[in-house]
Amino acid sequence: MGLHKICKHKGRARDRCKHAWWGSFRGRRVSLSKWTNREIKSKAEADKALDELTAAIRDGTFDERGIDPPADNSPMTFGKFAEVYKQRHVLAKGLALSTTVDYRLKPLIERFGERPIAEIKTLTSTTSSRT
Description:
Largest sheet: 3 strands, antiparallel
Mean pLDDT: 84
Radius of gyration: 20 Å
Number of strands: 3
Strand order of the largest sheet: 1-2-3
Number of domains: 2
Number of helices: 5
Order of helices and strands: EHEEHHHH
Shape: globular
Helix content: 40-55%
Distance between the termini: 66 Å
Low-confidence stretches: none
């Protein structure tokens, strides 16, 4: 069982750095913020999340996707994917793109919004080198 960070900081600096907390128990290692689907800022919060992780593993209810795994088995649409991308990548990492992400995604969502991701294909070149 362990609570740790994967970074180069040492000692107390590690407890205060902004890197993600990881938890491991019985051979399972997960990012605690992703697994709990909430932001973990302190070691105390990380310890509480680790307790939830160990309880889930002991009870046999552990799911690598998180505490509340998605129950929706319908295909993911482009609109849902764009929202997940915005929340979990752009906003979570504080990218400069976060101020314009809605503007940039709007035409794509208008075009592909309700289409399942599996149905969206890229165009390939149909020209060949026939002589």
